[in-house]
Specification:
By secondary structure, this protein is α/β, with parallel strands linked by helices. The protein folds into two domains: 210 residues, Aldolase class I (TIM Barrel, Alpha-Beta Barrel), CATH 3.20.20; 53 residues, no CATH class. The protein is built from 14 helices and eleven strands. The longest helix has 16 residues. This is Probable nitronate monooxygenase.
Length: 313
């Protein structure tokens, strides 16, 4: 896309990132998204050896740039921060903390650093720390969420920083892309729709749950622990919500949630697993390749709104 700072910064065709979904975002999905002209992301919320394997596998599947997401509060964050340098990864996205202490090292290894933020204050801090761009994520997203909606967050972050802003949270079709650009974003990050991409290796039960979801089928649990998470309602989320209301300890709640995402994503347990999903799930109703998803979204944005000067690449 012409005159787009995100495309120019990363040398890509479409300013779209695939969300870094734990237990889900592997080499298969990341490489497919990158190959289609966007930026695929491998989750770093996994054992270091697994992340290394996925990086190497992705390199076999695509010669195009892809990224790794690093949860800075995770136990092996230091190891993965080192790994992305030795494996020559192009892009790092970060969450749960500040990447400040790694910034110099990453930049000296030609890594573009793009933190995920949920507030203006954090966006300003990340720009000051030397971030190349920012992913501003609204509360409509799946998984760990902030408080502000995408509609409210994006224009305020855009006004607060000079680096490019990528909008995330509640974006699932061309209308969402167009809306994000109208709010001042220069790119989008999409998670839930890529969950049903043909190259996504998540359990088919999980995909079916997304495809059948309605607009009000998600809820946020874990507010009392300080780590709210958006999921599709099921037996686990109802149990969790009930215990939260009863005021059980954080330890008990964490015990209930331990390993729950793996149960859903890998084992396909739709009762006792944590089915992380954005509010956009009600819009997602078909399985497609990553290429079809990306091209359809940008074609729709272009045709409906002439947003990109009538030039859909």
């Amino acid at each position: 896309m012409e005159n787009n700072r995100v495309c120019e910064l990363l040398n890509i065709d479409y300013p779209i990132f695939q969300g870094a979904m734990a237990w889900i975002a592997d080499a298969s999905l990341a490489a497919a998204v990158s190959e289609a002209g966007g930026i695929g992301i491998i989750t770093g919320a996994a054992p270091t050896e697994w992340v290394k394997e996925q990086i190497r596998e992705a390199k076999k599947l695509t010669k195009k740039p892809f990224g790794v997401n690093i949860m800075l509060m995770s136990e092996n964050a230091e190891e993965i921060a080192e790994l992305v340098c030795t494996e020559k990864v192009s892009i790092v996205t970060t969450g749960a903390g500040s990447p400040g202490k790694y910034m110099e090292k990453w930049k000296s290894n030609n890594i573009k650093v793009i933190p995920v933020v949920a507030s203006v204050a954090l966006a300003k801090r990340m720009e000051k720390a030397g971030a190349h761009a920012i992913i501003a994520e609204g509360t409509e997203s799946g998984g760990h969420v902030g408080q502000l909606t995408t509609m409210a967050l994006i224009p305020q972050v855009v006004d607060a920083v000079n680096i490019p802003v990528i909008a995330a949270g509640g974006i699932g079709d061309g209308r969402g892309v167009a809306a994000s650009f109208m709010l001042g974003a220069e790119g989008v990050q999409v998670g839930t729709r890529f969950l049903v991409a043909k190259e996504c290796t998540v359990s088919q039960n999980y995909k079916d749950k997304i495809l059948k979801a309605k607009d009000i089928d998600t809820e946020v649990t874990g507010k009392s622990t300080g780590h709210p998470v958006r999921v599709i309602k099921n037996k686990l989320s109802r149990t969790y919500a009930k215990l939260e209301k009863e005021g059980v300890s954080v330890e008990e709640l964490e015990k209930l949630g331990a390993g729950a995402l793996r149960k859903a994503a890998v084992e396909g347990d739709m009762d006792n697993g944590s089915i992380m999903s954005g509010q956009i799930a009600g819009l997602v109703n078909k399985e497609q390749t990553s290429k079809e998803i990306i091209e359809e979204m940008f074609k729709e944005a272009d045709e409906r709104f002439n947003l990109f000067g009538g030039k859909h690449e």
